[in-house]
Design brief:
By secondary structure, this protein is of the alpha+beta class. Helices cover 17% and strands 34% of the residues. It is globular, with a radius of gyration of 26 Å. The structure holds zinc ion. Residues 399, 420, 422, 460, 462, 465, 467, 473 line the site of zinc ion (ZN).
Length: 755
Amino acid sequence: MKEFINMSSYFNDNSRIRTSSLPIDGKNELSLEEGALITIENERVRLVLNPNGSINEFANKESKLYLVKGATEAPPIRLSLVDRNSQGLLSDNYVMTILENTAEKKAIQFVYTFNSRADATCTISLAKNSDEVKFRVRLSNMTYNGDLSVMDVEYPIVEGIKTLGDKEKDVYAAPFATGFKFLNPTQNFNDVYGLGIGKSSPLGYPVSMSTYPSGWGMTMQFGSYYSENLGGFYWMTQDQEDYIKNFTFTGIGEEELRMSIYHHVDDLGKTAVNFDYDIILANLVMGKWEEAASRYKTWALEQKWVTLIGRAEDRQDINRKLFEKTGLTIFGFRPDVSSWVDMIPTYDAIASRIEDDILNIAIYQNKNYFDLVREYNHAYSVFEFNTISPLEMFYDNSIRNARQDRLAFYIHGTPFYYQCPKSEDWLDNRNKTEQGYFDTYNVDALYFDVFATAVHPIECFDLAHSHGKKVNILDGFYKQLQNASDLADLNGFYSVGIEMITEKTLAYVDFYQARANGGPLGWMETDEIRGMVDNNIAIKIPMFERVYHEFGAIRTDGYLVPLDELGDAYYYIAGYTALNGGINEFNYEYFPTNKLPGAAQINFEMVDYVNRLSKARTTYGKDYMIYGEMLNAPDVNTDYSTYEYSNPNYSATSIATTGRASLEGEWTVEDIVTAAYKNKDGNVAIFLTNVKNAVVSKGFILKALRDYGIETADVYLTSSQNTERRIVTTVKNGEAKIGLRMQPHQVYMLEIIAK
Ligand SMILES: [Zn+2]
C-alpha cells in the first residue's frame, strides 16, 4: 500500500499571504500630541481620541490597517443601572489629565462624572515599542440606591468599525461557545442573521451571548477582528480575578460594527470598584485566529487556573481511564422508553465495534441499563441537575435577576428554580444527593447539566441571601465544583463533568459535554447563531483547545448517532471532534420514542470510523491527541463537499430555540480535517483524516520551521491502516514536501522528529 506519494504539484500556503497598500503615516517614535484631537502613537500603533476621550482612530501600522478611522460620534464610556431602564448613561462632564509623558511611556487620564451616580476614572497608555494600548477603568463615589445603583460600565467602546478592505475576507473570531469565526461581519452582522454577538440574548436565556465567563458565551476573555492572511486587531482583558464581563461585537447598520467591553460591578454595596486589570487593544499581523489564540495563551499560561494544576499528563488527580482508554460517550441513552425493545441489542452492536471504553452519561437511572454497562465494565456517569431544584424548601434560595424575577429552568412544564450556590444548606443537600449516587449506583463520574458554565445565571440579585449585595456569585459555583471533586476523590475515582466549559473551571473537571462541533446537526449553545451556522457564516474553530488542550478537561461532543440519515457530514463531525482532542458522542437525548433506532439500522462504518479515531487517540497518537499542546494545523488546501443531513434527535424545545422545525438540510464541510500537536518531548505530530467517501490525494509543503520552529527533522508516517511507524521523508531547511494518498475515513499521523 502506497500512502506517501510523489505529487505533481505541492500546495504552498505562502501564496495566500497578502499585504495592504493603505498609506499610514505619522510618527515612528513614541509620541503624544494634544490638539483638536489627542494622538498617541509609536512605530506600531496609533490611537486618536476625540476631545471627550472617545476613540476616533485606531491604526495597526505593521499591517497598515485601520480598526476605525474618523469616528467623531462614538461615546467614550457608558454606565448601566440595575433597573435596566437606564442603559447606557452618558457623561458630558469630563476632565483630561496627562499622567506621564516620557520617552518610555505616554499615559493620559479622563475622569467622567455621571450625575451623582458615580465617577469613572479611565487611563490610557502606550509604552515604547509596544503594540498594546492599555486601558483601565475605575468607578468611585457610588452609593447603593436600589434599582438606581450602578450595575456595569462599558469601556472602551469602538464605534464605526468598517471592513478591513475586502469584506469577503473579514473575520470576527472569538471564544464564543469555545470558538467560532464569523465571516464577513460588516455584512452578516447587519443582516437577517441578527446583529452579531451582543449583550442581550435574543432567545431569552439567562446568560447573554457575550458574557464572560460562560460556555454559552465567552469561554475566555478576548476577541479579534482581522482580514484573512493579512492582519487585524486583538483585544483582551487581563483579569486574574472573577469580574463578569461582556465582550460585544455587533452590527450598527450601514455595514458598520461596534466593539465594546462591559465590566460588571461585583458588589452593589461598594462605594468604589477598581477593575484591577489592563484592557488591551493590539495588532494581529498574520490574519489568523490562531495568532489571537496564541497571543492569549502567552498570558493565560501564567494565570493561577493553569499554574495551580499544570499539564494533565503530570497530574495525579485525573481519571486515566477516561483520558487514555475511552473511545466514545453515549449520552442520554433511553432505557426509560419501555417500547424500545432494541435498547440492549443497540448497545451490544455499538459496543461490539468500539475497542476502547465507553463513557455512559445516563439521564435515566435504570437498573437494566446500569447492569448492561457494568457487564462491559464500561464507565457510568450519573447525570445531575445540581444547580436547579423544583423543591418548595429551596424556593427562597432561588436566584433573582436584576428585575427581581425568580428564574427557572423548565422540565416538562415544571419550574426547576436556579439555585444560589452561596447557601451552605443547598450545597450540603447536593453533597448528600451525590454521595447517594455513589452508595446506590457505584457510579464512575458525576455530570452536571445546566451548570454555571451553561445556561445557569451567574449573578444573584436576591439581596436577602447570605451574599447580600455581592451579586457576583461565581465563587459559590467553584466551591460547589470543588466539593464534588473532593467527594469523587473520597469515593476512589476522579471524574467530574459539566455542560460546556470556561477557563476558570479547568481545575475542577475531567470532562465537559458540548454540541457545537455538530454544526447544524446539533443545537443548544449555537441556537443564538443558528442561521449563521446553517449557512457556514459561523464556523467552529478549536480556539479553547488551542489555548488549553494540554491542561485537561476532555471535550465530548458530536451530537451524533450512527444512522444513514445523518449523511456523510457525520464523518466530518467525528473527524473534527477527535483530531481536536475530543471524544465522540452518540446522543439519544431528544429522540422521539417512535424513532429510536433498531440495532439493524446501525451503520457500522460510522461506528468503525469513531473506533479508528479513538485508536489513534489511545495508541499511536496518545502523547499528542490526549496530552499534547495544540499548534497551528497546516493548510493543506482542502476541497469541500456538500452533504444532506437529517438528525432525528430534536424536540419541541429545539424547534423553539433554533427556529427550525427539524434538524435537516445541507451542509458544506472540508474533505480533509487536520490538527497539529507538540508532545512533552517537543516532538510535533500532524494528524489528517479524509472524511470523504473517496480517495483523496494531497500534496503540500510542510513549513516546519515557520510553524513549529523545526529546521531539520525526520518525518514518520503512522496510519489507521498501517500502525507500524516508518520514516517517509525529511525536513530540510525548514521545509518538507508531503504527498499523501488518503483512503476514505482513515487517519494519518505525520511525526516530525527534530534531528
Ligand atoms: Zn443569591
